[in-house]
Amino acid sequence: MKINGGRSRIRALGGSRLAQLWRRMAQKKYLQSKLTQFLREDKIQLWKPPYTDENKEVGLALKDLAKKYSDKLECCENEVEKVMEEIRCKAVERGTGNEHYKTTGIATIEVFLPPRVKKDRKSLLETRLHITGRELRSKIAETFGFQENYIKIVINKKQLQLGETLKEQGVTHNVKAMVLELKQSEEDVRKTFQVEEEKQNEAKLEEKRIQRTKRGLEILAERAEMVVDPEATPYLDIANQTGRSIRIPPSERKALMLAMGYHEKGRAFLKRKEYGIALPCLLDADKYFCECCRELLDTVDNYAVLQLDIVWCYFRLGQLECLDDAEKKLKLAQECFRKCYGENHQRLLHIKGNCGKEKVLFLRLYLLQGIRNYHSGNGEEAYEYLNKACQLLKELYIDPSKVHSLMQLGFSAQEARLGLRACDGNVDHAAVHITNRREELDQIKKEEREKKRRRLENINHLKGMGYSPRAARQALHQASGNLEEALKILLRNPQMWWLNDSAPESNNRQQSPSQEKIDQLVYMGFDAVAAKAALRVFRGNVQLAAQTLVHNGGRLPPDLQLSAEDSSSTPSTSPSDSAGTSSASTDEDMETEAVNEVLEDIPEHEEDYLDSTLEDEEIIIAEYLSYVENIKSAANKN
Q1: Per-residue pLDDT tens over the stretch 332-359
Q2: CA distance 12 to 62
Q3: 220 close to 5: Cβ distance less than 8 angstroms
Q4: What is the C-alpha to C-alpha distance for residues 182 and 576, in angstroms, rounded to an integer?
Q5: 52 DSSP 8-state letter
Q6: Residue among 436, 427, 433, 377 at smallest CA distance from 398
Q7: Residue 19: which residues within 8 A CB-CB, separation 6 or more?
Q8: Where is the composition biased (Acidic residues) (predicted)?
Q9: Which of 134, 440, 516, 559 has fewest C-beta within 10 Å?
């Protein structure tokens, strides 16, 4: 499926220093997971005696337990004891918080701070659950030293809604909350007024940017339901894997378009490594996808790719604790791929003739599964998935000289990579594949333009008969584009005439029909009273009034009789009709800016999401394989 139609910076650290820091974090997370696993298996509760005394201090038994587990893991006893003490303290804090919550109703929220925060990135915050999301954001900003308007809070893998209470949003005691900054810069460490002012201005721009994205996507999605000239007015369209537009039920079309639009915007931020801004877009995409039926999500790969992108974003933000939800998302992605591509990619092979390009998605899936297993303490499973990812990396490697050869023939680097992966690295076959695909897409685009032109002509034909654009669109949709059938539907359902694109209050502002038009209907044999009422309903359109009276035996249907009475009592003019004209052009300019900003990030190539140099993946696979191997070597040394 496809859509037609200032940056965040992490504080600079030395390359080797950053790698060492990340390695320590990853290894500590692995050790915590293994020890937690052992404690569960042995049914040991560290917050109770003999591991914690009556004063909630550490008991002597913890040292003996640490020695037992260090021998089992064949690693440093002091390191094991240190991590177990952290686990114990956290369990004691949780127990204390539980008792406090039961007696006072004050909940504890575990807050995970951005990577740039020097102090412990995981902190506890107490709050009542009847406060609003805005009040919680203010409290977090005040407690941890953020600018309130320039942070976003993610709880339960969803953006915190500022206008709703925590309880209404399903926030509970001991929930995890992640803080995202809209702007992070190297100057954050300086506490000068100038830097703070610059930071605020940049964050304001980022917030406006996010709001423009939302408005731009809504406008583009709405245009798909309107009558627009496809050659002159940009809008969103939905196409299948071959590039042809597909019909979506109107009830789901807008939600699906918004979901795909937010996903593309989020992917654009991911490409620029602006993970803190990408995540809110991806979570919004997930929210709108959930409004679509399950059957639709199982037939396209968009939803599966989105799950990968969200987990990837959590990982790149360094929020390892958020990987707790990764297992569910990765299983969902794997199941969606299976249903969409078929067992052993049979459906994909039938549609495209190859599956080389889609292997990129499976490489990332295996890599993320390896990372998740490593941080869950499952070293063997992690090694298995990382090796699968490594094997795919070798298969998908592209010789730069081959890319250069295809670019010399006039193809883009993206086309070259995709073509080579589709053709197992054969340059000649890739050139033929790319050329054939270009010709196929050109033909499809011509056919789609012709379909849209015919649809526009049919809508204009019905508009010329007096029907509103919205009524014409709905009738044509029900008639699968057949003009004659659409006209029959409109005649059988004259109330559809009231489906109008303008504001409801403006629909009724009609003057009394002229005597000349009433006489025309009376001459045709209709009663004068019925003729006048029909002309009121259809705003003086003699043709529609006559057709409706004929179809209903010379009378108006009861529901249209009521409409006639309403219109007769409504003033014909309004002194405010011309008000606000001066601001119309400004609003239009703002909408154009919002639309253009969205369109800039929507890729032209329908398989852009399959194109990757795999440079980041190669580095991360090597890193995590080294972590697993270090565990093995440390065990051998001990």
Answers
A1: 999 988 888 877 776 666 666 667 788 8
A2: 39
A3: yes
A4: 41
A5: B
A6: 427
A7: 623
A8: 586-611
A9: 516
> Helix 427-464 and helix 469-478: axis angle, to 10°?
120
Q: Alpha-carbon distance 240 to 352, whole Å?
A: 12
Tell me what pLDDT residue 123 has.
Answer: 83
Helix then strand then coil, in percent of the chain rounded to 5, is 65, 5, 30
**Which parts of the chain register pLDDT below 50?**
1-16, 18, 184-196, 199, 227-232, 501-510, 569-584
Match 């299948």 to its residue by tokens.
Answer: 240
The helix (run of H) or strand (run of E) holding residue 152 is strand 151-155
Do 568 and 511 touch, CB atoms closer than 8 A? Answer: no
Q: Which amino acid is at 443?
A: Q
> Rounded to an integer, what distance in angstroms lies between the CA atom of residue 32 and that of residue 44?
15
Tell me the C-alpha to C-alpha distance, in Å, between residue 263 and each of 254, 291, 327, 550, 605: 14, 15, 21, 51, 15
pLDDT digits (tens, 9 = 90+) for 33-67: 888 888 989 999 898 899 998 888 988 889 999 89
Torsion of CA 364, 370, 371, 377, to 10 degrees: 170
**Prior bond to 400 cis, omega within 30?**
no
Grouping H, G, I as helix, E, B as strand and the rest as coil, residue 127 is: strand
Longest dimension (CA), the chain: 107
The Cα–Cα gap between 324 and 372 comes to 8
Residues in the chain: 638
Q: How far apart are CA 269 and CA 378, in angstroms?
A: 32
Q: How many CB atoms lie within 10 A of CB 531?
A: 26
Query: Tokens standing for 370?
Result: 């390896």
